[in-house]
Design a protein that fits this description.
This protein is of the alpha+beta class and 130 residues long. 28% of the residues lie in helices and 29% in strands. It contains 3 helices and 7 strands; from the N terminus they run βααββββββα. Keywords: Membrane, Transmembrane, Transmembrane helix.
Length: 130
């Protein structure tokens, strides 16, 4: 049994680098007084979020990953993929919910639809490389 092709969308990894730099920069502050140790948790949480958060899509479902936890949405629940006013991709579901897809921009929608294995609407059936 072969593993289905998965398309992964993640935030820019520069966020992770910035969080690591912020963590190193906060070390002297946290070492100054014991009550300042929780300051280190902020860049640590940002680093974990930057490493983990995003959207994974394959032919079966969407997986929306956050700092903690994930949400799985089957393609049969998705009525429409669109963009919001800020250019982020959103999925409109059959129960009326509108879910923002983490790390997916409007320009990424063709790649997202291609992950379903379905042809793009309006695309010629014999297009090369499709």
């Amino acid at each position: 049994m072969s593993k289905p092709d998965t398309v992964r969308f993640r935030y820019n990894q520069a966020i992770l680098v910035a969080a690591i730099i912020a963590f190193v920069g906060a070390l002297p502050l946290a070492n100054a007084r014991a009550y300042l140790l929780p300051v280190l948790l902020v860049p640590l949480a940002v680093a974990v979020w930057a490493w983990r958060a995003g959207t994974d899509a394959d032919a079966r479902e969407l997986r929306l990953r956050a700092l903690v936890g994930q949400r799985r949405i089957g393609w049969e629940q998705v009525l429409e993929l669109a963009t919001d006013q800020r250019g982020r991709a959103v999925a409109r579901l059959d129960d009326g919910q509108q879910v923002t897809l983490p790390a997916v921009r409007g320009a990424d929608l063709p790649r997202l639809v291609a992950a379903t294995g379905q042809p793009l609407p309006g695309a010629p059936a014999d297009a090369p490389g499709q």
